[in-house]
User: Which sequence fits this backbone?
């Protein structure tokens, strides 16, 4: 199991409210010259020919002459001693402050974006057709004249800066800018927060016309207001019927039937005319419906932390739980897999760790592993080790706002900007278990902080979701059923004063995912909103392998139901039989046929937890015996002690951590 699973399957639409501007068919707006914007990156072109990153030969000559102008260069050598244009690199352009443009035949300014120190340049005698994607000079720029230029809907937004001037050659318009909101006409741009005016209950919204089109820009930078004509082309949501109100000059939206966080797409036209100047476009508006401001009228009754920690472990005094096996596995995790930031997701040899060509994903550390190890320390009752390791987890993964980035890579030093709700909930569970056994004020404060973060990032309108992307606050309107740890949720909801009805509705979602007594497994996902080709209210199996269910997913569902005494008898009987016969396989079709007859140690680890939760000693012993048989004996170096495959020298951390946890259940 890996965190944030749905986000790795789906390409979700961003949370920003954007208009993708598309040139319309107005015959008064004609541009026969196609303008292209070339994106370049210094790191990728520094060793390439100048022709690849600055294709205009005449611009190359201008830059070459500028680099030999000792009066304006700021580098310590007083100018570059280059003897050939081919010796110019993007890094050299940083030193150019002024450009005296003698050439009259420059048409392409691609490459000039590397002149980050540019103060002033004049290309007024040239007809420019192609521009770089970034403005030359950045904040250093005082003025830039780009000569004769045809303003187009694909122009980069920086051409509208008051530092940039040009002779607009679009025949039907003489001013600088059509009145796009935020003064941008290129690509996709973000509207201000108040562009959609929501009703008090977030069930209605209006888009004022002037948020789409401000008017015609005048020479002094102001906009001459006009009343555009707006026509809706279509809406991507079947439940949304936008209305164009010409009396109020606004688009009206009824959001009552729209699921929060559903992506809405509206295509519309805007037409405006003033003194012979005209504008027409066919635009696309993308946005997500916000959550309602909920009022809790039926708060969940609080429960004590000890209610979560009420399990009587079957591991205590059990001869199958061999001390040397547990120690060997624990030593493998601590000595081979653990770093000062987390736990690697899979086994690597020392050679692989030091090899720059090793797959970067091998260096991933995830909150799933952190939570499992914390839960193990809590079950073991080791408060000092728990608090020490939790401090490390917080340092590595915390987003600073009560939640955790679900992945950190030790090689790239990068974090994945988003949480996995199951992982956050498991960490809260571990803190709850530890607090029940060894109360502390600092731990109580941590639980409070994480519950606040859980409400913010792991709930959508009161119900648990897969997770949230931190960079744009996009919430995934779906839940992987195995994430619904109903016992810990009951504690969290009680501590936070959240709705009893929301909790009950989630329990129904979990129970209604049951496939049936003939094959007592569970669906994988439930959708709160339209997503991944499914409608709100639908269930699905694995989206990446439709028609298949994963045993770990279903076993976790059974475990979570068992913890609140809601597990189906048919599920328990089926699991017990297949554990005893060692026929519990990784993946099944929905009729119960195995996809392949392979088994993972983690499946038997979870069945051990289920057995201990319901007090079934026989099933617990069968599960533990399978884990013991899967363990690599001594004599295999740092691979010894793990649950892995000796021929391939592969071992998944999830298998090892769930097994270690099972030894303490």
Assistant:
């Amino acid at each position: 199991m890996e965190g944030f699973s749905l986000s790795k399957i789906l390409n979700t639409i961003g949370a920003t409210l954007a208009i993708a501007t598309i040139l319309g068919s107005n015959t008064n707006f004609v541009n026969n010259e196609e303008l292209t914007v070339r994106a370049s990156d210094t790191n990728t072109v520094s060793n390439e020919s100048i022709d690849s990153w600055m294709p205009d030969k005449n611009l190359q000559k201008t830059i070459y002459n500028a680099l030999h102008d000792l009066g304006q260069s700021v580098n310590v050598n007083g100018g570059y001693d280059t003897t050939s244009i081919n010796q110019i690199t993007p890094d050299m352009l940083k030193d150019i402050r002024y450009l005296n443009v003698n050439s009259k035949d420059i048409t392409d300014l691609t490459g000039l974006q590397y002149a980050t120190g540019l103060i002033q340049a004049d290309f007024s005698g040239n007809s420019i057709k192609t521009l770089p994607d970034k403005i030359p000079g950045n904040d250093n720029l005082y003025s830039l004249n780009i000569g004769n230029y045809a303003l187009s809907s694909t122009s980069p937004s920086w051409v509208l800066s008051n530092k940039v001037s040009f002779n607009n050659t679009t025949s039907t318009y003489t001013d600088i800018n059509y009145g796009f909101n935020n003064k941008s006409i290129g690509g996709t741009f973000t509207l201000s927060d108040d562009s959609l005016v929501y009703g008090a209950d977030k069930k209605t919204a209006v888009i004022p016309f002037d948020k789409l089109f401000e008017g015609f820009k005048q020479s002094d930078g102001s906009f001459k207001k006009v009343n555009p004509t707006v026509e809706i082309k279509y809406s991507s949501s079947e439940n949304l019927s936008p209305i164009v109100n010409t009396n109020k000059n606004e688009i009206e939206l009824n959001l009552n039937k729209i699921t929060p966080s559903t992506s809405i797409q509206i295509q519309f036209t805007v037409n405006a005319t003033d003194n012979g100047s005209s504008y027409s476009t066919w635009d696309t508006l993308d946005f997500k419906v916000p959550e309602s401001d909920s009022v809790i009228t039926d708060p969940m009754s609080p429960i004590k932390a000890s209610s979560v920690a009420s399990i009587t472990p079957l591991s205590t005094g059990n001869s199958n739980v061999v001390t040397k096996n547990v120690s060997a596995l624990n030593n493998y995790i601590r000595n081979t897999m653990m770093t000062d930031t987390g736990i690697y997701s899979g086994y690597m040899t020392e050679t692989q760790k030091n090899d720059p060509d090793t797959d970067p994903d091998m260096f991933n550390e995830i909150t799933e592993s952190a939570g499992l190890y914390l839960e193990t320390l809590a079950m073991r009752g080791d408060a000092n080790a728990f608090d020490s390791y939790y401090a490390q987890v917080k340092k590595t993964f915390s987003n600073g706002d009560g939640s955790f980035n679900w992945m950190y890579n030790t090689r790239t030093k990068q974090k994945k900007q988003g949480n996995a709700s199951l992982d956050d909930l498991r960490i809260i569970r571990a803190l709850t278990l530890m607090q029940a056994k060894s109360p502390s004020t600092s731990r109580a404060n941590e639980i409070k902080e994480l519950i606040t973060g859980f409400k913010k990032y792991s709930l959508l309108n009161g119900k648990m979701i897969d997770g949230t992307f931190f960079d744009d606050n996009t919430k995934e309107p779906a839940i992987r059923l195995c994430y619904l740890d109903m016992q810990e949720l009951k504690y969290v909801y009680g501590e936070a004063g959240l709705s009893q009805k929301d909790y009950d509705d989630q329990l129904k979602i979990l129970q209604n995912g049951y496939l049936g007594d003939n094959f007592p497994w569970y669906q994988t996902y439930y959708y709160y909103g339209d997503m991944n080709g499914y409608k709100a209210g639908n269930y699905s199996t694995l989206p990446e392998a439709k028609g298949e269910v994963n045993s770990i997913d279903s076993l976790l569902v059974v475990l979570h139901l068992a913890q609140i005494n809601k597990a189906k008898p048919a599920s328990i009987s089926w699991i017990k039989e297949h554990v005893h016969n060692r026929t519990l396989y990784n993946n099944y079709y929905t009729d119960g046929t195995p996809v392949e007859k392979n088994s993972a140690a983690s499946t038997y680890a979870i069945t051990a937890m289920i057995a201990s939760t319901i007090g079934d000693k026989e099933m617990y012993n069968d599960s533990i015996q399978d884990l013991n048989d899967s363990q690599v004996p001594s004599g295999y170096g740092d691979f010894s002690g793990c649950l892995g495959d000796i021929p391939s020298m592969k071992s998944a951390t999830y298998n090892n951590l769930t097994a270690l946890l099972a030894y303490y259940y």
